[in-house]
């Protein structure tokens, strides 16, 4: 019943607010204002939890810590740019989780930057897109910071240590169209999927090249070795010429099985 009442109240509030929305700019302004109210309310709730008592609650007397006003910060996101008031405590050890200290943009903004970057847009194009869509000014340096942060995680994942034994390993290559330097070109994506000794599937890595070839597969297999793989009992592959030789050169005890799709 309470959920229905909450929905009814929210619907009534939305209906009332909608009366003053006449243009897309009005809607954007309303969205930013509601975001500000919601974020600030959530931060205040985090402060209540951090201190262990509500504002003006007498149980907080002589507790050793108390509220100490607010500090202003600008927050960028898909709502544009808003100024929020972040609560402070006297001991200065309040660490909000929703909007962390030093954070000046929302997670959704980072996702949008990465999405546009993945589609081949330049840093300048992304900067102009955010200004046009949200009226938010973001620098090329910020975009590079976001994308570089992700690339560091990708590199860490690509170089992570592997198990010594994988009973079954599937090796295949697919060709995808990729936007590069404002052109759409074909790239070969090398994929290695391993079945570990617990029977779970694990994507061991992805590599990119201009086309598929046994020579590049040899470099992929060497990389697997360098990351700790000692044995693969069965390698399931396609019929690429020279592929079995590359496998035997790095994992000589491996049994090679032509995958069922390529056998048909």
Automatic annotation (TrEMBL):
Q: Does the keyword Amino-acid biosynthesis apply?
A: no
Pfam families named among the record's database cross-references: Transposase_mut
The lineage's top-level taxon is: Bacteria
Keyword presence, DNA-binding: yes
- Any single GO BP term: DNA transposition
Q: Where is the composition biased (Basic and acidic residues)?
A: 75-100
Q: Where is the signal peptide?
A: none
Q: Name one GO molecular function term.
A: transposase activity
Give UniProt keywords alphabetically: DNA recombination, DNA-binding, Transposable element, Transposition
Q: Which residues cross the membrane?
A: none
Q: Cross-referenced NCBIfam families, in alphabetical order?
A: transpos_IS256
Q: Which family does it belong to?
A: Belongs to the transposase mutator family.
What does this gene product do? Required for the transposition of the insertion element.
Q: What is this protein called?
A: Mutator family transposase
UniProt organism field = Oleispira antarctica RB-8
């Amino acid at each position: 019943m309470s959920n229905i009442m909450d929905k009814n109240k929210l619907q009534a509030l939305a209906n009332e607010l909608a009366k003053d929305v006449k243009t897309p700019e009005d809607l954007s302004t309303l969205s930013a204002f509601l975001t500000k109210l919601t974020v600030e309310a959530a931060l205040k709730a985090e402060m209540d939890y951090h201190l262990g008592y509500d504002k003006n609650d007498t149980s907080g007397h002589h507790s050793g810590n108390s509220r100490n006003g607010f500090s202003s910060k600008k927050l960028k996101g898909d709502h544009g740019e808003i100024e929020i008031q972040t609560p402070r405590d006297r001991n200065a050890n309040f660490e909000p989780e929703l909007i962390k200290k030093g954070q000046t943009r929302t997670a959704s903004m980072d996702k949008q930057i990465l999405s546009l970057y993945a589609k081949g847009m330049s840093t300048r194009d992304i900067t102009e897109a955010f200004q046009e869509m949200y009226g938010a000014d973001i620098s090329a340096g910020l975009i590079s910071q976001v994308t570089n942060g992700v690339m560091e995680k990708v590199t860490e994942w690509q170089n992570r240590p592997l198990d010594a034994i994988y009973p079954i390993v599937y090796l295949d290559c697919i060709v995808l169209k990729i936007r590069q330097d404002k052109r759409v070109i074909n790239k070969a994506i090398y994929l290695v999927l391993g079945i570990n000794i617990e029977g779970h599937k694990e994507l061991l890595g992805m590599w990119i090249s201009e086309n598929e070839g046994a020579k590049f597969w040899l470099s992929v297999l060497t990389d697997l070795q360098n990351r700790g793989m000692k044995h693969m009992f069965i390698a399931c592959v396609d019929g690429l010429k020279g592929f079995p030789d590359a496998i035997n050169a790095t994992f000589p005890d491996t049994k090679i099985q032509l995958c069922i799709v390529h056998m048909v």
